[in-house]
């Protein structure tokens, strides 16, 4: 099930033996989710994080040795399918084996600390240190107050449509012969392991071999930003104003005519990389004082306070429905969770949502609704178990 080890290519390829040395890997392990009680799932080798940790020193020695002799190779990815609201097509997450997750996290940490990649455009907020969702929303609210018109769109099937050749060329240009270049390109080429009983679901995903960047790898977010770095640069050179969170875009304009011209430019630029935004209603063209949805918030105009961001009623319903489904008795039985585990996990989920939306304009109302749902779910769970 593991991919064949890459052949050695002699001294022409330098090895990242210091960057991926034993101490760096130990640090990456300590900082990873896999070292906690909330570890990720096993990959296709069925080795859990707990099993990997039980022989941590030995496993790290093997990684270091194979990095040094050039025989290290990433394994195939385990596909896991998650239901999507209102669609028979499920969202697919690709899970690397624990060893590969560790190596990729160490690489991400190095690339982030050294700022090796040209991904720090002021318009980009996704998966960049000291930016993130909160900053993206704050910037979008600020700009909405300065521009009467805006265009909101998502890049269609972004991760699945990324050109691997374009991305690998971007890596080679940015890294300029760096010892990590070979491994980064290998990560781009990672594919899913196709198990027989999953072929139908995999077919629904519409994946193309040798195309796309598989989601679920620690390197995927930072590399997805690199895939759009030339697009970001073109927007900036055009003196257009944008907030981008991965494949979620808002562009701001002074007039409707300027917005129409800007939309054409965006489509032309994305087409250079075989990417596109929807033509239909999924692309929002919003005029003065109009509301728009962005990253789970609704940016709306208040006559007394100007533009603000709140959790939309649609998003609240989606969250509450998700909690009720995830913590139903049927689901908990299928997950083999007891009552105590369910209470703890539900509490964590509620706390997580409250943390995510704490800055929302309507947080108090959201807080009340989600806590009411928490009590209702536990009450229903208790009744179904104990009568």
Task: Based on the model shown, name its key terms.
single chain; 387 residues; alpha+beta; Alpha-Beta Plaits; 2 domains; four-stranded antiparallel beta sheet; three-stranded antiparallel beta sheet; 16 helices; 9 strands; 48% helix; globular
What's the total number of strands? 9
Low-pLDDT stretches: 1-11
Order of helices and strands: HHHEEHHEHHHHHHEEHEEEEHHHH
- Looking at the overall shape, the CATH architecture of the largest domain is 2-Layer Sandwich
Helical segment tally?
16
CATH homology-level superfamily of the largest domain = Reverse transcriptase/Diguanylate cyclase domain
Q: Main β-sheet, in a few words?
A: 4 strands, antiparallel
CATH fold-level topology of the largest domain: Alpha-Beta Plaits
Polypeptide structure, described:
A hairpin with a 2-residue loop joins strand 4 (241-245) and strand 5 (248-253). The strands form three sheets. A four-stranded antiparallel sheet has the order 4-5-3-6, sandwiched between helices. A three-stranded antiparallel sheet has the order 7-8-9. The chain has a two-stranded antiparallel sheet with strand order 1-2. It is globular and about 65 Å long. The protein is built from 16 helices and nine strands. It folds into two domains: 22-302, Reverse transcriptase/Diguanylate cyclase domain (Alpha-Beta Plaits); 312-386. It is α+β, with helices and mostly antiparallel strands.
């Amino acid at each position: 099930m593991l991919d064949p080890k890459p052949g050695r290519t002699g001294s022409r390829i330098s090895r990242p033996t210091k960057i991926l040395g034993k101490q760096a890997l130990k640090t990456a392990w300590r900082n990873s989710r896999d070292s906690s009680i909330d570890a990720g799932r096993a990959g296709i080798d069925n080795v859990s994080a707990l099993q990997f940790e039980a022989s941590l020193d030995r496993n790290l020695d093997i990684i270091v040795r194979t990095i040094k002799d050039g025989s290290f190779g990433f394994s195939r990815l385990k596909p896991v399918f998650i239901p999507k609201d209102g669609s028979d097509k499920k969202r697919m997450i690709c899970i690397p084996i624990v060893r590969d997750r560790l190596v990729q996290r160490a690489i991400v940490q190095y690339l982030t600390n050294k700022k090796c990649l040209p991904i720090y455009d002021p318009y980009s907020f996704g998966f960049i240190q000291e930016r993130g969702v909160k900053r993206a929303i704050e910037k979008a609210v600020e700009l909405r107050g300065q521009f009467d018109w805006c265009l909101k769109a998502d890049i269609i099937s972004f991760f699945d449509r990324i050109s691997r050749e374009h991305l690998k060329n971007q890596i080679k240009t940015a890294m300029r012969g760096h010892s990590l270049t070979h491994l980064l390109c290998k990560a781009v080429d990672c594919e899913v392991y196709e198990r027989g009983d999953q072929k139908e679901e995999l077919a629904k995903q519409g994946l193309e071999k040798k195309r796309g960047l598989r989601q679920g790898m620690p390197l995927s977010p930072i590399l997805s930003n690199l895939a759009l770095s030339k697009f970001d640069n073109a927007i900036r050179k055009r003196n257009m104003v944008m907030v981008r969170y991965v494949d979620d875009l808002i562009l701001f304009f002074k007039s409707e005519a300027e917005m129409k011209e800007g939309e054409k430019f965006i489509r032309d630029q994305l087409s250079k990389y075989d990417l596109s935004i929807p033509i239909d209603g999924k692309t929002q063209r919003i005029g003065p004082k109009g509301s728009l949805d962005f990253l789970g918030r609704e940016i709306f105009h208040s006559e007394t306070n100007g533009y603000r961001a709140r959790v939309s009623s649609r998003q609240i319903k989606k969250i509450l429905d998700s909690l009720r489904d995830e913590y139903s008795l049927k689901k908990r039985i299928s997950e083999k969770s007891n009552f105590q585990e369910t209470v703890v996990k539900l509490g964590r989920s509620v706390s997580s949502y409250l943390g995510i939306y704490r800055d929302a304009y309507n947080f108090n109302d959201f807080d009340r609704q989600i806590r009411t749902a928490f009590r209702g779910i536990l009450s229903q769970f208790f009744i179904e178990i104990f009568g």
